[in-house]
Amino acid sequence: MAVDFTEKAKRFQAIDEIIASGRKLKWNQIISEMNDKYGLQTSKSAFYRDIEELQEKYGAPIDTDFESSGYFYTDPKYRLPRFYTDENAAKAAKLIKTLMDMVKGNPLYKEAQEVFESLAIENHDLTLENIKINKKPDNDRIIFVGAPNTKVPAETWRIIDKALQENRVITFDYISNADKESKFRQVQPWQLIFDDGNWNLHGLDVVKNARRRYSLEKIKNLKITNDVFTLPKDYDFRNMTRGSFGCMCDDAYLDYKIHLHGYAARYAQTKLWGDNQTITPDKKNPGPDGDGIILSFRTNQLMCVQRWVWKWADEAFPLAPKELVDDWKEKLERVNAIEL
C-alpha cells in the first residue's frame, strides 16, 4: 500500500484527534466537529467506512462505549502514525525521497530505505519507493538540479561498501586530471564524499603514504584485498579543510585577497569561504558600478580557488597570494594568445 496523503488522510487525522481526546463523542458529533473545526465534510456512511479502514488497515483500537455509544480508543496511548496523517510530513518525505534519489544504487540508499521501513507499523509498506503524494504544484516547488553524473557501476559500490565496513585495502586503475595515462593505485578507503553532484573516495595512497581523493566514475578494475588497516582518528576529510570549495585541498594554508564586483561580489558576500574571512570595500578598484569589494580568507584549497576566481571572468581578479596571482596572469596570457 502506497502512502497517500489525500482528503481521506485528512479525515483520518481529524477522526484520530477527536477520538484521542477521550470525550467519547457519537458519530454525528464527530462528523459535526470535523466540519466545524477541520473544514471536512463527510456523510454517515463515509464515516463508518473510515472507521472500518482505520481499524483494519491501521490497527486503530477503536470501540464504542456501551452506555453513550461514543467512540474511544481501547489503548489510550494509540495515535495514528504521522506518516499517514500529516501533509507537512508528506512534503518532508517527498523532499527526503528526492534527496535519496541522488544516491540511488549505492549502499546509502539501501540504508535509508531500511530506516523508512523501520518507521512503518506492521504490515504497512512505507518505503522510499512507495512514497506518493497528490500531484499538486506546491509538491514540485523544491527540486535538485545539476550536471548529469556518470553512472557508477553497482559492483564498484558493492566493493567500496565492503571495504569501508571491513577496513580493507583496495586496488584499482585510475587516471587523474594531471596524468595522461592510467596508473595502478593501492588505497585505504576512509570516506565517501558527495561533492557538486559527484561521488569521491577519500583515503590514503599506500604507496605514496599521502591522502588523496578519487572520483568514483573514474575508478577501473577495482579489487578488494585481504589487507586490513586501522582507521586513523583524523581520517575525516573535514579535519583537513573547511571544504568551502569542494573536496580538493593541499597541505599548505595560504591567505587570500580577491577583488570582486558586480554579481560576483553580491554572490561572494552570501557565503563563508574560509577561516578569518573579511569583506571590505575596494576603494582603489571600486568597479564599474562602485560595488567592488576585497574578499579575504585563509584556506588550503589553492587549486579550487584558482578555478573559482577564473570563472568570474572580468568580475574578479586576485590580489594575493603570489601563487594565485601568477596562475591568473598565466591563464590570461594564454587566453589573449588565442586567435578567433
Automatic annotation (TrEMBL):
Which positions fall inside the WCX domain? 257-334
Q: Which Pfam families match?
A: WCX (PF25583), WYL (PF13280)
* Positions of transmembrane segments: none
InterPro entries noted in UniProt:
CBASS_pafABC_assoc_protein, WCX_dom, WYL_dom
| Annotated ranges, domain WYL | 156-223
List the signal peptide residues: none
Example GO molecular function term? DNA binding
Query: Which key words tag this protein in UniProt?
Result: DNA-binding
PROSITE patterns registered for this protein in UniProt: WYL
PANTHER family assigned to the protein according to its UniProt record, in alphabetical order? PROTEIN PAFC (PTHR34580:SF1), PTHR34580
State the name under which the record lists this protein.
Predicted DNA-binding transcriptional regulator YafY, contains an HTH and WYL domains
